[in-house]
């Protein structure tokens, strides 16, 4: 008999009843150091007082009004994002997937309105992840995500990261946009080198192609800048944001330049919940904390410390781990042992990590993780690695 919850997830045998800071607790009191943070969602950890306060205060006055009316928290959050980024305008969604839908629609509408309706093709990259909607899976293109779900949304070309010849060959006057994650998350924490991101920007500029960055996982302070593309000194035309921006409350956004958004007039897009007062109240509280130089400097400092300790772990357990990679507090341990075994061994030691493609385990701790917790995290990963090593014989 089918489970009452559609069985699309393979879940770990863990059930948490509360969370505080970097820790999750089961009903029997067992505590876990959370290096997954809801897959890069709980950017400020669990039950951050400023977020609890923002949510409960908003909940006591107004939960929801539709986008038929003005929503002050939405306006405030949009102003903050416009202030702090390349963007001139913001549309709020509930998730990263919905942000992908709009990014694709926006790029196509742009060219339609410019009198080039056939300019609809989008270049994407293998190993990418942009969500599970029809546009999202077509953009990612992997067999794992698309098999059995055809016919797929047409108009996506998939290239390998770093294949410059294929990229140059793929560029034509049919290309509306290029979509790329500055650091692939689900794909196994694969950062696109800054020089490549710059190269992509140049290519887009030469051919008038719109650059869409998917910063759903790598944005919102995760790499030590508010958005990962800032490291490369470039700006996109359209950017997808979600996960960390709501700190655990469902919220996403599409940020765009005035030019890229020029096709999106009243009635061309909408959402019942997107930009809801509760979500935006929390989003403002998240931005007030993360989008400050001191907070981001602290992310960089802690990231350096964690990375250094992980390098030590790789050196100590060469049969278990192969390398550390990533950016900021978006780190991956490429495994030699099976990554899911390492994740499970972590559970036994009270530390949570997240598997990714390419036999990687992801470490995406709350950005508020303390120096002491970093030490504890690595000690627990060390114990997990020792367990795996002894099983390997
Ligand atoms: C880079 C990226 N884009 C898009 C998504 C989809 O976001 P959501 O699950 O909020 O729909 C994800 C989710 O993991 C992601 O990592």
TrEMBL record:
Binding site for N(2)-acetyl-L-ornithine: 132, 271
PANTHER family linked: AMINOTRANSFERASE CLASS III, SUCCINYLORNITHINE TRANSAMINASE
Keyword Transport: no
Residues the record lists as binding pyridoxal 5'-phosphate: 96-97, 129, 214-217, 272
Any Pfam family: Aminotran_3
CDD domains found in the cross-reference section: OAT_like
HAMAP family, per database record: ArgD_aminotrans_3
GO cellular component, as recorded: cytoplasm
Catalytic activity, reaction form: N(2)-acetyl-L-ornithine + 2-oxoglutarate = N-acetyl-L-glutamate 5-semialdehyde + L-glutamate
MF terms in GO: identical protein binding; N2-acetyl-L-ornithine:2-oxoglutarate 5-aminotransferase activity; pyridoxal phosphate binding
Protein name: Acetylornithine aminotransferase
Recorded name of the encoding gene: aruC
Native organism: Yoonia vestfoldensis
N6-(pyridoxal phosphate)lysine: residues bearing it: 243
């Amino acid at each position: 008999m089918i489970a009452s919850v559609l069985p699309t997830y393979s879940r770990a045998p863990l059930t948490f009843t509360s969370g505080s800071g970097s820790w999750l607790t089961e009903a029997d009191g067992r505590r876990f150091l959370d290096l997954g943070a809801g897959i890069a969602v709980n950017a400020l950890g669990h039950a951050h007082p400023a977020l609890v306060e923002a949510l409960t205060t908003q909940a006591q006055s107004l939960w929801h009004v539709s986008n038929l009316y003005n929503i002050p928290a939405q306006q405030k959050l949009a102003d903050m994002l416009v202030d702090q980024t390349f963007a001139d305008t913001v549309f709020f969604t509930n998730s990263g997937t919905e942000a992908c839908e709009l990014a694709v629609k926006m790029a196509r509408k742009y060219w339609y309105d410019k009198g080039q309706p056939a300019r609809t093709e989008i270049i994407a990259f293998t190993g990418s992840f942009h969500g599970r909607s029809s546009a999202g899976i077509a953009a990612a293109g992997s067999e794992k995500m698309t098999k059995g779900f055809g016919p797929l949304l047409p108009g996506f070309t998939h290239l390998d990261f770093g294949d410059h010849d294929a990229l140059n060959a793929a560029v034509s006057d049919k290309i509306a946009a290029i979509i790329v994650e500055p650091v692939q998350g689900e794909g196994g924490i694969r950062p696109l080198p800054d020089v490549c991101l710059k190269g992509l920007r140049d290519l887009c500029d030469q051919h008038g192609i719109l650059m869409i960055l998917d910063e759903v996982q790598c944005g919102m302070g995760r790499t030590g800048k508010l958005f990962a593309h800032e490291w490369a000194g470039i700006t996109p035309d359209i950017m997808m944001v979600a996960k960390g921006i709501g700190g655990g409350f469902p919220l996403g956004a599409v940020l765009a330049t005035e030019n890229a958004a020029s096709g999106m007039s009243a009635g061309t897009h909408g959402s019942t919940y997107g930009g809801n007062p509760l979500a935006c109240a929390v989003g403002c509280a998240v931005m007030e904390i993360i989008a400050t130089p001191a907070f981001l400097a602290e992310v960089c400092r802690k990231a350096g410390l964690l990375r250094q300790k992980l390098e030590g772990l790789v050196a100590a357990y060469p049969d278990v781990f192969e390398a550390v990679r990533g950016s900021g507090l978006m780190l991956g341990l490429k495994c030699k042992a099976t990554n899911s075994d390492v994740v499970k061994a972590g559970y036994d030691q009270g530390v949570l990590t997240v598997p990714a493609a390419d036999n990687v385990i992801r470490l995406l701790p709350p950005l508020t993780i303390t120096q002491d917790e970093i030490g504890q995290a690595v000690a627990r990963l060390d114990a997990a690695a020792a367990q795996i090593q002894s099983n390997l014989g």
